[in-house]
UniProtKB/TrEMBL annotation, chains A, B, C, D, E, F:
Organism: Rhizobium mayense
Gene that specifies this protein: speB
Family note: Belongs to the arginase family. Agmatinase subfamily.
Protein name: Agmatinase
Keywords: Hydrolase, Metal-binding
EC number: 3.5.3.11
Keyword match Electron transport: no
InterPro entries listed in its UniProt record: Agmatinase-rel, Ureohydrolase, Ureohydrolase_dom_sf, Ureohydrolase_Mn_BS
Length: 322, 322, 322, 322, 322, 322
């Protein structure tokens, strides 16, 4: 391992068993944001779930995913990417949040991600409900809108919920309106579920987002979906948002609204591995609620998906200027 | 929404959050059978599990499925069918049952479904164990036998279990013998599992039922299976029975006998959506046992399947005379 | 049963098994608030948990307690009080709440309880986190402050949490400040747990509340505690608030912050039965979080406690003017 | 160990770890009833739950208790009774039952216990729901009625449930009517719970049974309760029936109707140890439903209680003629 | 059924319900090894998990699988093989193990399987962690190395773990080194997961093992994988080792290290059925940890897979000399 | 707070919500042993469970207790001790252990605690199974034997288990033999459970240990038990070992062998608070197995007990020379 990376390696499981020591993400080094100038990719928990419309609890998502990440080994078994050998990776801990005050939480999360941007760190954020993508993007995107690949059962582009403009059903509508996302460079994969109105998907399509429902996914085939996603985001700066409910419900009982009929973990892993080379500026895994889970499988899946994002972000940090 | 349907809409989640209020099915209007003359499609719980040979508990199936249905939205996200806009749909509550007396229960369930028929209601029944399909058919079928599409791991056409002629392994043998089902118009999809004898499937085939095992399913492909099912039942009056154990076991740990190697929820949803236009006179979802479940996924899947049946029954009520 | 009460009896389990039909509280009659003028005691769900500082989920408390109340029989086995024979009791459903907007929720809950008061109904509220006691009291108390008997591990009289003046740690400080509670007529029973500061209990004592810690409880003995509580609230109008975490943690794993070393369900039942004759204007059971529970015991205990409150409120409605 | 007992010892855990080998009760020798002539005390499973009015599943009670009994060591740590050194003890397996046919099950269970009696075996029966005590007593009691010590939250002396004369709410009414029990020599300990009518306990008292409610239990004190129970049954032939729901609900979440406010396992253990010297002809542990349990504690408690009964029965077999 | 097999049939579920009696594997006859001379195929539990590097508990695997096997019926529903009609099958109980002493356990397990070999029994072993395959092979393989088909997420061919040469990550490296396995006749199917080093698979390939990763599996297709496995092991003596974590994680939450992205139970069942005719000398199902499971699905899947192995071993015992 | 302690305070929950950030014990400062010279009291995880005779998994005890400690506040609500204001407290992380090699683990744990002693730190150890008390004492006790107060259902003074001299049933026999413990100054509180032989307690008594069974506990009363324990250990150096199974089983389903009939958490808390002023040199909480737990209550109880030990150790560090 290169000298500059050796201080950032996870604990060596041949010396410290995987069940031992406090679980930062993959038991990698813990560095707070104010000392993280040298970090290339930072894991950040965002324990916020006040935007949840149904079953809450994703405020415990970061803790659950970190605990489940004990068993993640340091090399990708299919792409052979070894993220800790190509980037300085640290667990930055959690963003500040307020337990009760919604607007204040959104504000301090936003400020945190401004600091992340100012430190040129590519964040891998562990949610939290999907609301968090909005303050993350507000913090990360300074000028030009970015593209996004979103894995999700729902578009999360509602306008509002009974007067609430910011909640876990609306982040990407707001992000487009605020110029954070370029809708032409946004693709949503895995859409399905019962819907509230026959025009549910109209707004997203009207602004130019590409929506790939599970019917589309099946008819196109996984390989074509990957190619389409790559084509849409192209070479520009791109964000990746993975709502765990994009997975078929059996893979994520521990989420607020599990939806049947989605793609499998095999599908998810292959799709993520198919996105190498994109200029990802950050990513998130959202909506993991450990107290709703069965035998920890949702957190375990989220930890594995997080590792795939880590590989993508590590490669992006190596290949692109921050 | 048309005037005649507006009294039958579920609670509006933008006004009443989905976690609020008592859960009738999809939080739709509750109307007892004796006031249900105007109803087109009625949800009916049948909390009966005395016919169970292994793990009991499906008497709690109706309660479990209704609770899980809180999150089901009112429009089908793939077919765009909006059942509450084309039919008057109500939750009729549960049939009477006796907690201990088997024969009396069968009798009073039968009588209940006679009233359902006399009110020209297409029932969506929530079991209960699979025994219930027999009294349902006894109540619903007055003269000519009907066809049936059955999703199931088991044929449920045993002759008897140690002297018991009516139990959850025998309903469809009885139904054929009693002239309730036309075996030539019966198709069973998803058969598999270890079996008790090498001639397990012989009787069903001998009377003309079509059996599609999982090996058949895989070799035919899902599209051909849908076509075959449509061909077999044709345009006649048809019943739909969905034993939750038709699903692969990971989708239904909360059933008496989960069986590995079955079709997925994606498969189930696509098959059900492929059955539009058939003259369904009623349907049931059976064998959901909430106390055996993991994180509520079986009830959640059953609620989603129930919604698909609701769409089929609503369309049938619009398209066919009762 | 007296004629005037017969329309308000729960379903008869000898006719409709306890596992059948939708579960209103004890499967009693459902009447919305705008038709509830004749009701003496009303069960009200308050599915609000946005004031929670640690583990959320009590928004599902009303649903959980109602489901668990299926098995509650209609007569108190120790006092022989039969509430449905002395009061018109109905399940009024849930208060409106907003899923995300905190202040709006507090406002509409308050308004709901104004209507409860205007209908001269004594409410038995099912929480929801303990924040709800504040809007309940705001709605119920029009002029003179009331007394209160509170069962709780925590005083819930904090001043604020990082700028938040209303949350589940502060309701009774606000209620005293707003003149809703007469602190001299407030007794808190069951206090214990680790605390945030050595002066944790000072404010409550400084305004005249009586605090009975578990050490006090043990040294006084249960009978003396009951007498002390009766003495403190006297004959005046009194509210009863039962935070489920007042119970020892083994009785309530399904709450946000279970605390060891509390009183048992036996203690709670005997204490509640010892409070007969007090002029209770309403009561609540808070902080039940079904998704955190083990085998449903917390909801089951809450349902039993709710029945004891129902007996107290039914007697109060008979014995005191509304 | 005496020569005559050495063939009946449980597996030696110093040689075969407690997690190894199939779990008969305490991993003791398995002998079917038709070869059990030499056995003094026989463990018998009665996997019957068709008499259940609410939550079924106690048909899995015998399997659950046996599995939990792996860890029970062979000597009583408080009385130092070593049952396997004073009696020939074997696990006789399960009685026959029918999965669906109620009356036939009652019949064949009765016949089984006739054989038990004819073999002069004192049975320790593992239920099954409380219905089973009736066919057990029918089989065991040939001529004179016997006494009974019953631990239970409910009297189980209802007359009938909607036409059903035999179910888990009625066994002891039937047993008195049939001359199997002498009600003057029956004591019920632990009664509580909400009740269906104010006269719930009248019949039992009218025929001379002694009912000790939890209020009585507390006011008398445990020692006096033991003395009272001993006084009531005296020196005559006595049966012991332990409904697991006699325990406070936290000790038995895995039962059909857990009831709060009961006695603890410490209480139960001390009471059972206080009954040494009584001429017990058999006993049962009922209403354990493993699928309703949390972390196996109900089965574990039932296994420990079963061991205490085993000690009592072993001593009785030594001290009294069969 | 042939006369010679009739003493070895499982309990008849039409006479003894599946929930009744102690659960040997499929409730078949229990015969200890020292009386098992006549047995063709023997089920053997190996409750050993001291070789586990992460989450322990597979010492309870044999008990869990046996309990789950109650529902397995005696005929294969797809191949129609009826193992109990072509082989004398018995449950031999568990091997001895030591609870704490590692080396002694390995030694006594090895000796046990020597006795299995000397009795010409083909063992179906229920683990236990994957370490057990080493002492099994040491006992079974006397002279020439055998082939092996292994289903697994991991190769289990590590050299050592911090000085430990025998643990659940190393059995097949040791087996090759000791001449128990012919690596040219070894195929591993299902490999995936994050890995510890980029050369993770090198040793296995260097000695001639065939490794089929999930990427390979998908690109080859299931049918080709079956053919390749058959080709590799050919007609020689072959062992089958099925690590339950070969399955996709949703099928086996109850294992030490569930890995996402694996094959389904449908895949597993079809692959096993595709291996008929091979000269299997024994097989194992490893790494089932019931206390980590959700709703028993892992044990249930393991029981079904065990039945498929039983069919293969029964046919092998019929078709090949021992 | 005094200047010297301010660097060692837990995270302030008014700024960082309790669900946020990685959970060291009480979210206090993490300092590895080689930088811990200034620490007075150190929390140490000992993730070792290879000495377990029945259900393993306590290797995850440290992780489980730390996660549960998020909610522990910094002041004792009954004694008002504020440990972080009187001692420098840090979470030292976990001791090294080997995942498979027993003897090596014992050796490296011993060495770790030698370093603890050499740094004059009073350790609060989180197990791990009860074996760990032996290497802890070997490390901590250099010359004169120490006294011990042990809370436990079992004496853990067996001689050996089938040749194994060190396992979780033997640590205190070894400790006495090795001169680490002065048996005259050892008291064991809470003994009960079935036992393996009638002489189970003889050895411990023969060497002078004081054994307080639950029968003794009840007859003496809790206050007298506290006084007796204080009398026995006197003013000398004393160790405190709390096996979580000392608690009644309902408080600790998540342990290897829960035993009914023990003391309550209330009892435990009061007893621990009654031990102030003793010269405790260290203490441990053992046998917490999170994967066996129900709703996390065992870990939660262990976290609360750990806080009480922390108070005792902090006071001892203030009052006694190290």
């Amino acid at each position: 391992m290169s000298e500059i990376y050796k201080d950032f390696a996870p604990l060596d499981s041949s010396k410290t068993p995987r069940f031992a020591e406090v679980a930062t993400f993959m038991r990698t080094r813990s560095i707070p944001i104010d000392q993280a100038g040298v970090v290339d990719v930072g894991i950040v928990g965002v324990p916020f779930d006040l935007g949840t419309n149904f079953r809450p609890g994703s405020r415990f998502g970061p803790a659950g995913i970190r605990e489940a990440s004990r068993i993640i080994r340091s090399v990708n078994g299919h792409t052979y990417v070894a993220p800790f050998e190509i980037a300085r990776i640290a667990d930055l801990g959690d963003t500040p949040v307020h337990t009760v005050l919604f607007d204040e939480s959104i504000q301090i999360i936003t400020e945190y991600f401004r600091a992340v941007r100012e430190n040129s760190i590519r964040p891998l954020s562990l949610g939290g409900d999907h609301t968090i993508s909005l303050p993350i993007l507000r913090g990360l995107v300074q000028s030009d809108p970015v593209g996004m690949i979103q894995f999700d059962a729902h578009t999360d582009t509602h306008d509002s919920a009974r007067g609430s403009k910011i909640n876990h059903g609306t982040p990407f509508r707001r992000a487009v309106e605020e110029g954070l996302l370029d809708p032409k460079r946004v693709v949503q994969i895995g859409l399905r579920s019962t819907i509230s109105a026959q025009n549910e998907y109209d707004w997203a399509r009207s602004v130019g987002m590409t929506l790939i429902t599970m019917d589309d996914y099946e008819s196109m085939g996984r390989t074509a979906v990957i190619e389409e996603a790559r084509r849409i985001v192209g070479n520009g700066r791109t964000y990746l948002s993975f709502d765990i409910d994009g997975l078929d419900a059996v893979y994520c009982p521990g989420t607020g609204v599990p939806e049947p009929g989605g793609f499998s973990m095999r599908d998810a892993l292959v799709m993520l591995r198919g996105l190498r080379g994109i200029n990802f500026i950050g990513g998130d895994i959202c909506e993991v609620s450990p107290y709703l889970d069965a035998a920890g499988i949702t957190s375990m899946h989220a930890a594995n998906l997080s590792f795939e994002l880590l590989c993508l972000l590590a490669e992006a940090s190596r290949d692109y200027a921050a």
